[in-house]
Amino acid sequence: HGRLKVKTSEEQAEAKRLEREQKLKLYQSATQAVFQKRQAGELDESVLELTSQILGANPDFATLWNCRREVLQQLETQKSPEELAALVKAELGFLESCLRVNPKSYGTWHHRCWLLGRLPEPNWARELELCARFLEVDERNFHCWDYRRFVATQAAVPPAEELAFTDSLITQNFSNYSSWHYRSCLLPQLHPQPDSGPQGRLPEDVLLKELELVQNAFFTDPNDQSAWFYHRWLLGRADPQDALRCLHVSRDEACLTVSFSRPLLVGSRMEILLLMVDDSPLIVEWRTPDGRNRPSHVWLCDLPAASLNDQLPQHTFRVIWTAGDVQKECVLLKGDGTCSLHPLQQSPSLFSSPGCTLQPSTLSPGRQEGWCRDSTTDEQLFRCELSVEKSTVLQSELESCKELQELEPENKWCLLTIILLMRALDPLLYEKETLQYFQTLKAVDPMRAAYLDDLRSKFLLENSVLKMEYAEVRVLHLAHKDLTVLCHLEQLLLVTHLDLSHNRLRTLPPALAALRCLEVLQASDNAIESLDGVTNLPRLQELLLCNNRLQQPAALQPLASCPRLVLLNLQGNPLCQAMGILEHLAELLPSVSSILT
Q1: What is the pTM of this model?
Q2: Residue 86: which residues within 8 A CB-CB, separation 6 or more?
Q3: Which residues share a beta bridge with 520?
Q4: Long-range contacts of 458-461 (CB under 8 A, 24+ apart)
Q5: Which of 52, 73, 95, 542 meets the CB 3.0–4.6 Å disulfide criterion with 567?
Q6: 506 and 528 in contact (C-beta within 8 Å)?
Q7: SS (H, E, C) 82-145
Q8: What number is the average pLDDT over the span 78-90?
Q9: Alpha-carbon distance 48 to 176, whole Å?
Q10: Where does residue 4 fall: left (phi above 0), alpha (psi -120 to 50 degrees), or beta otherwise?
């Protein structure tokens, strides 16, 4: 770290080696003595002395801190109050000396927390002073910040006082991530939102003051990332409420599929789904589309024939997510090729929720289905992590960041923040400008080109989903967009035609199995090597995979789980060069009537 390496003579090097060997012998003998005494149950003050010798030089020996705790617990039952007080005072002094050796020692800070937690009347004021001293030496020591938060909580220090403390340190040095982070913990305590408001967000007057502070920081040092992270937190949105996004019922597959706002592990103690059919509970087995027992946005279950018979004019399906305290309902009419839907709000008695889209349609016999889904546009699911509530504030921040970018055209943090602000304000309006900023950002920060490509792909897919919903269609065109990754696939549960051709995709991920209505998938002219996601797609009929990188016929094994697949185009893939490939594929995929190689 900037220190010149001083050359030493052979004699000096040998003397150093002998000194290290001598220290190592003492270290090993003391450690062995401690372990022997511990094994023999001799937990007395001699163990404290032995461990002091070792920890004084190396405070990161966690086992020896455990030994000291065992000794102190033993001595608590043997010593008088006066002797115990002297022992604790000595222990606190020893801990402070260890922290001077290594101010970032996990074990030392943890032991101090443990010790203070056992005292009947700890001197918390002294501990706050100790934290202040160590933060003067290194204001970014997050170990000390963690301990200060512990002390402040135990001492019931008012959040306003702690906020003032962070003010003083930030004023001295803007590059203090721990201090910025502490502010993000304190401000919601000082300005709690009412029950009806977004939790964790700040009132506008407080927000504007904080934005002024953080702008001073990144205009002073635009390349320091700590202020930019805090800036993103300030403009962040509250955690989205749990929601049941889409409910889909298929008569043809005798299956019900449901998607959620976050991944769930259904069947765990906290995540329970209840299915009501015609107001009667129905016990079903829930599974993920890809068959893996892990958290997923999408879950489905098979429906018994009785729940889909034509003896009644309609069947009502309601899914209740107990942990999220939300539910959704749709109605499947008698099998005459039509479907009717009734979205359900949070309350089971309120219909016609403004957050849901009615999708009645006429369908051919044998394809009867019903669904109810939340509107992506109404819910503003794709406005990044930035809040959409204060558009005037966001617009002002965008203008400030653009001013800074003119002064610092190659500042990556500024460029990324501009992109996120434009996404929060209006992703479709700023789409073209956002793509231009991505090009600039990749040129400025080539080491993160892959991350930026994935982020750009994510935003483009989100925009395409919004356009699809505005057009009220179930066809999604994503060709020629230079995509490197697929995301938000749980939002595509109702899509019937998907065009992914002419991109840079290397795989079709397992989450693609959520597209239960997909009939045609075009994925030609990519770099696809794996088809793990093309599995258990009950309606898939055509799959175009021309000019990819499929090497072995075994890569096509997942396609055998798609019962209606009849057309498969593999032209231009390396596996087409293998001898007897058509016979091999016919054996691997006997139900596929047309395989083009």
Answers
A1: 0.79
A2: none
A3: 497, 542
A4: 458/485, 458/487, 458/488, 459/423, 459/427, 459/434, 461/486, 461/487, 461/488
A5: 542
A6: yes
A7: HHHHHHHHHHHHHHHHHHHHCCCCHHHHHHHHHHHHHCCCCCHHHHHHHHHHHHHHCCCCHHHH
A8: 88
A9: 37
A10: beta
Residue where the block lists tokens 């015609």: 278
Task: Report DSSP state, residue 510.
Answer: G
List C-alpha distances in Å: 514 to 293, 309, 346, 431: 14, 26, 24, 27
List C-alpha distances in Å: 153 to 8, 124, 148, 159.
51, 10, 8, 9
Query: Given the DSSP bridges, would you call strands 326-333 and 314-321 parallel, antiparallel or unpaired?
Result: antiparallel
Q: How confident is the model at residue 363 (pLDDT cuts 50, 70, 90)?
A: very low
Round to the nearest angstrom and report the end-to-end CA distance of the chain. Answer: 60
Q: What is the widest separation between alpha-carbon atoms in the chain?
A: 100
Tokens of 557: 């094994």
Checking if the pLDDT of 352 tops 80, the result is: no
For 63, residues 6+ apart whose C-beta sits below 8 A from its C-beta are none
Half-sphere exposure for 131 (CA within 13 Å, toward CB): 26
- CB atoms under 10 Å from CB of 320, counted, come to 19
What is the rounded CA–CA span in Å between residue 401 and residue 222?
10
What are residue 514's phi and psi, to 5 degrees? -75, -15
Q: Is the pLDDT of residue 367 over 70?
A: no
pLDDT of residue 312: 79
Share of the chain above pLDDT 90, in %: 50
> Which comes out higher in pLDDT, residue 293 or 416?
416
Closest-CA residue to 573 (of 532, 512, 506, 528): 528
For the segment 64-88, the average pLDDT, to the nearest whole number, is: 89
3-class secondary structure, 475:
strand
| Residue 275 main-chain phi, psi, to 5 deg | -115, 125
Give the whole-angstrom CA distance, residue 327 versus residue 325. 7
Look at 408-412, 535-539, 545-549, 577-581 and tell me which has the smallest mean pLDDT: 577-581
Q: What average pLDDT does range 197-218 have in this prediction? A: 80
* DSSP output for 164-185: HHHHHHHHH-S--HHHHHHHHH
- Quick one: average pLDDT of 433-462? 95
Distance separating alpha carbons of residues 84 and 66, to the nearest angstrom: 19
- In terms of pLDDT, which residue wins out, 252 or 503? 503
Convert 326-390 into a string of H (helix), E (strand) and C (coil).
EEEEEEEECCCCEEECCCECCCCCCECCCCEECCCEECCCCCCEEEEEECHHHHCCCCCCECCCC
With CA atoms as reference, report the closest residue to 593 among 566, 575, 568.
566
Residues 121/122/125/126 CA torsion (nearest 10 deg): 130
Does residue 334 contact residue 313 with C-beta atoms inside 8 Å? yes
Residue type, 397: E
Q: Which residues contact 4 (CB under 8 A, 6 or more apart)?
A: none
Pairing assessment for the beta strands 255-264 and 296-302 based on DSSP bridges: antiparallel
List CB contacts of 214: < 8 A, sequence separation 6 or more. Answer: 180, 227, 230, 231, 234
